[in-house]
Amino acid sequence: MSRIPHEVIHDILLQLPVKSLVRFRSLSKPICSLIDGQDFINLHLNHSITAKSNHSIILKEWDLFAVDFDALSDAVEVKQHPLYSGGGTEVIAGYVYYGFGYDSYGDDYKVVRMAHFVREDGGGDGGGLGCERGYGVFAGHALHWIVPQRRQLGIRDCVLGFDIRDDKFFELPQPDYENKGMNFQVDVGVLEGNLCVMCNYEHVCVEVWVMKEYGVKESWCKMFSVHAIKWIGAFMFLRPLVYSKGGDMVLLEVNGEKLLWYDWKTKHAKVVRVRGGPRSFGSEMYVESLIRINDGDRIGWKKQQELDEEEEEEEEKRKTNRNKR
């Protein structure tokens, strides 16, 4: 290993999956120090995102399943963790509005939760925003939900944002939809890191718009339209998940029942058949990383790295002293 240039080792490790990197921490202290370093952790995550490596699709019904993005064949059940309050005396039993995102100001990861809850003594009540979807979509520096129109109150559909840097709500401008005279529903998602909205003209088509420059109304761009497919029926729900590695197709979740590869140039669609997965599901893209979410673990990991470096320095001093003798 000592004969291999450090830069070559660094580049090789960047290509590896997380499980392999965790195992390779035991190879040597220098390798462990490299893998545990924050610079390497960030570079590995960025490489995974740009190269579309270490990607999986999470399918959720009552249970969680993971599907490797490269294979898109078999679903593997994933262990779930119950959601408790900080004090451990309340268990979330009702509908939850939630979101997860990265606070670039504080260099921290945050979970946002708004819920109807039930205490163990039967008390407690929670309010809600009336959002279409429970989970918030993270893009830019905010989580996003669609608040549906309420004609009796004169309220139209709006894209509601929550800035996780300063914990403030705001309304985001929407595209100038092309068929305003038709009835349609709006949903929100994220595609290649950019906020997107899906404009669903039921029984006709779904338009997918992407905000190229976050927060700028004029940057909305209609990327493609998916027209009704006879063998699927009406699109009650359609959401883009990710582009193919070649960039010529997009993976779609349709009606919470199917995954489709869609070529927007030829307008052809192909069903992705996943073995062992649920019949109905919600789906999310997932990128494996070395980042540790729990602050205590992150601090402990860094502290352990410092201790390892100190121990390595002490060992070098002992070797030097022995050589002098």
From TrEMBL:
Disordered: region residues: 304-325
List, for all copies, the residue spans of the domain called F-box.
1-43
SMART domains named among the record's database cross-references: FBOX (SM00256)
Entry-linked InterPro entries:
F-box-like_dom_sf, F-box_dom, SCF_F-box_component
* Pfam families assigned to the protein according to its UniProt record, in alphabetical order: F-box
Identification of the protein by name: F-box domain-containing protein
Q: Which organism is it from?
A: Populus alba (White poplar)
